[in-house]
Structures are given as structure tokens and as C-alpha cells.
Fold this protein.
Amino acid sequence: MVAGACGIAAGTPLAILGGIGRSARLGAIVKGGVHLETLGKVDTVVLDKTGTLTFGRPEVQQLLPSPGTTDDELLDAAASAELRSEHPLGRAIVSYARSQGRKIVEPTSFAYTPGRGIATRIGESTVLVGNRAWMAENGIGMPASDHDVAAGSEVFAARDGRLLGSLAVADTVRPEAKRAVEALHRLGIRTVLLTGDARHVAAAVGGALGIKEIEAELLPEDKLKRIQALVAQKRVVAMVGDGVNDAPALAEASVGVAMGSGTDVAQESADVVLLGNDLARFVETLAVARRTRGIIWQNFAGTIGVDALGIVLAAFGFLNPLLAAAIHVVSELVFILNSARLLPTPEKTVTAKPELIPELAKV
């Protein structure tokens, strides 16, 4: 009579429900209890750069035309080629061209190669826009890079086999990103930056945020292989990303986390969606997941302890049926109340502030 697993059976679902509810109040939608439990065991966080550590709203900083090419020719070709692109850099170029009053010609064909660039037909010309590797693959003669784009990216444009020049496009790092990375480190979590951007861009952003493991110029399949390698090392990996390029890696990770501003494909592939596009919410949700898992283990250990003690006392005649029933009911109530601590309350789940991250990291 005194033995039973009711504390676990009733307390565990309540703890998971409370953890998911509290995470939702913080601005993170967890798509199931198993994902919350996995998030509580995460020891490695892999971060994308564009749209995750940065706002994903880059702006054209400078036009760098080749000799014999004007700024307008370079901008017109790049904007027309990028008109149907969904990449943040492409949208930035189109937005800049419109702000300059340029007429953007509709391309007659459009082909996108992830992690490289695009090929379009504009009128009678073939226009290529993308990174240095994309130009090299298409036989475009490239000069040695002598431009310092700092934490920005160089987007090259070519027409009919001739390089027109490049556009310097830079993004802004999210203000809460550094605090979030620092909080992850305090939790003992390893951080890795994987991006398709140039090495100097990744190094500048990663260095500013305190991320030591940085890999750049990666294709989507390269990111996928890196995630698979980490999982094969028995690491519990959370992948945080926002783009179509991140979808395979998000699906392969132990738990995938998508930014709310990300693409539909990324959000569909992810197990957790951050509605507020705020990395601070991710750290807070991770802390909630760890606390949820801790409470579940408290209930498990407490139930086993009460059952073992009750059985021993009953075996030696120290318990009667009435007292055994009382111990059973009271212990179950204690475990349920322990799990109920996770249920969100209006006073404790108002908008969380970034400055609270250091305290949350101690949970």
C-alpha cells in the first residue's frame, strides 16, 4: 500500500507542462516534452551567424567597382540579379538600389546555389552574383583582395565573364548576443560558430562575442557534417539558426532552435522556436529545461526513497494500513507540489530582462 510510482506518474507530466508553459511565457515555443528534456541535457550549442548572432538586416556600406565600371553599373547588375533572392545580403542590395532611385530590371531566369551565389539572365547578358568561390568556379578572373570589409561581407558581381566589382555589405551584431554567449559559458556549455560567410567576417563576430571555435565558408552540407560529427562524439547538441541553409543541421541536431524571424523551413525543422528573435530567451529556456529535468529527478529519487523506507518499516511491523495510506497520499502530494513550482505565474513570467541572464545561468 505504501509503495507506488504515483509521484513520478503525476509529477513528471506536470513538471514538463510547467516547463513548456514557462518557456512559452519567456517567448520560446517548445514542440514537446521530449525536446524540453533534451534541451536540459545540452552541453554544446552551435550558432549560425547571419540572422542569429546578427540582426540579419545587413546594409550596403560601400561600392567597389572594377576599373572601367561605374558604381551605377555595378549596383544595377547586382540588384537585378538579387531581385528574387531571399538571402539577407541580396535583400540588402535590392533595398539599397531602391533607396538610390535605381530602376531594377526583372531577370528572365534565376538559379541559386546555396553557400555560393546566383546565376541570372538579364536581357541578353548572364550575370553572376556571389562570393569569391562562386566567381572562381565560373572562371571569373579575381584580383587579390585589398579591401578591408571588417565584419562585413564582400559580394562580387560579374557580367558575361567579366568582373564588375564588389559590394561591401555589413550586418549588426545583436546587443544581447555577447551576454547570451557569456551565460552559456557560465553554464559550462561549449559554443561553436558555423557560418557560410568569409573567414575574416566570422573571426570578427566570433571574437567580439568570445566564441573560440569558429568555422567559416561552409556550405549547408558542411554544417550538417559538423553537427553529425559532434553528435557522433556523444555530445548533446543544440543548433541555433534561422535560414533555409540551416534546416538540415537543425533537423540533425539533438535539438534544433529556430529564430522567430527565420524562414518557414527553418521553423518547421526546429524543435524550439524563439518568437522574440532574442538569444537571451534561448538561455532562459535552457535554464528552465535544466530546472525541469532537475525537478523530475528529485521526484524520482524521492519516490524511490519513500517506497524503500515504507517497505522496510512495513516489513518490521512499524506501519499499519492507515498510516501506509497516509504516507502514500502525502508523499504523492509533495511531489506534485514540487512539480507545480514550474507552473508559470503572472508575477514571475512578465517580460524577462537581458540583465537577468547571469542570475538565470546559476539555476
